[in-house]
Amino acid sequence: MSADLVDDPDGHEEEGVEAFNRMADAIQGLQSRLGALDAGMGEKVAKAERAASKAEIAAVNAKQAAEHAEATARQEARQAVSWAVLGAVAGILVAGGAGYWLGHASGREGGLADGYRIALDQNAAASWANTPAGRLAFGLAGAGSLDQLARCDGHGWTPAVQNGRKVCYPSVTAGKAAAGWYLP
């Protein structure tokens, strides 16, 4: 049987060897292309890995930057609120101080004006009390007759209106004595 394999009476052996050689050359060419492709892919993979590493570093940096920006924004917001509160307190203090000052000055001026008016009235009253009419009125008040005269409420007295002014008339009835007032 082994002799049958070696012998090729039809001459197909050469075709087989040639086909084998072509196949070997094709495989070798394929291997070299695959090797070149593998080398190119290795370069691309390494490049992709470097890009991924850079992207990862950039992501970490971006996260840190975002955290820093957020912390800064919170701090700035706190500062803004602090300044606003401080401004409001200062405004309230200034407004309160101004209101106190204006009110105090206005009240003081009004009080002084009232005091001067009262003092003038009292001075005038004291001056009148030293006149003869004032001394007479003081005597009537001491005797208890000044109130009766002012109200016209003595026994037998009648209040009336004459020429648009109030008057007080003593009246005498038959058989009764006229009533009068006590003199000082």
Structural notes for this entry:
The protein is rod-shaped. The protein has a domain at 20-130. Helix content is 77%, strand content 7%. The mean pLDDT is 80. With 184 residues, the protein is mainly α.
Describe this protein with a few key phrases.
2 strands; rod-shaped; 184 residues; 4 helices; mainly alpha
Count of DSSP E strands? 2
Q: What is the percent of helical residues?
A: over 70%
Biggest sheet architecture? 2 strands, antiparallel
The secondary structure category is mainly alpha
Overall mean pLDDT stands at 80
Poorly predicted tracts of residues = none
From N to C, what is the helix and strand string? HHHHEE
> What is the assembly state of the chains in this entry?
single chain
Strand content: 5-15%
Helix and strand layout, with pairings?
Layout: H1 2-6, H2 12-129, H3 132-143, H4 146-151, E1 157-162, E2 165-170
Antiparallel strand pairs: 1-2
Summarize the structure.
The protein is mostly helical.
